[in-house]
Amino acid sequence: MKIPRSGIWIRRYYLLTPLFIVLDALFGLNFRVSGLASPELRYLYYGICLLCALACYWQSRYNALIAMAESSANLLILLTGIMIPIVRPGDLTGDTAASAGISGDHLVNFLLSGGMLLAVFYSAQEELRKAPRGD
């Protein structure tokens, strides 16, 4: 079965997860899931992304669905991570002077996840348009 071009770059996106782990662990650059402050939760999320990579490799017909679900979850985590300190400052950390707002990591995370979500949505829509109909 031939993999659509969109499926190839979805696989590559998920296969880059180890690079995101290294950037986070060694340099503190948290671009993939900046909405999670806890390192344990971030590494759990990275593990989920690695499982997505395996699923995209073994079940390529679900690439778009996997990428849309993961990107949507990532955006939800990001927006929640930005909004909680604004709406309820100090509740999670006990620090009432906790910084709230958008950082550079948040912007890169938004561009990666939002870009992936849009690209997958439109490429899946194009694939559906090309598919034979059972009229």
Give the SSE order as H and E letters: HHHHH
Helix and strand content put the structural class at mainly alpha
Kindly, what is the distance between the CA atoms of the first and last residues, rounded to a whole number of angstroms? 24 Å
Mean pLDDT: 83
Instruction: Give the helix tally.
Output: 5
Could you tell me the radius of gyration in angstroms?
A: 17 Å
Instruction: Give unreliable regions as ranges.
Output: none
**Percent helix among the residues?**
55-70%
* Net shape: globular
The major β-sheet equals:
none
Strand content: under 5%
Number of strands: 0
How many domains, in number, for the residues?
1
What key phrases describe this protein's structure?
mainly alpha; globular
How would you describe this protein?
The protein has 135 residues and is an all-alpha fold. The chain has one domain. Helix 3 runs antiparallel to helix 4 and helix 4 runs antiparallel to helix 5. The protein starts with a helix and ends in a 5-residue tail after the last helix.
Which secondary structure elements does this structure contain, and how are they paired or packed?
Blueprint: H1 5-15, H2 17-27, H3 39-58, H4 63-87, H5 104-130
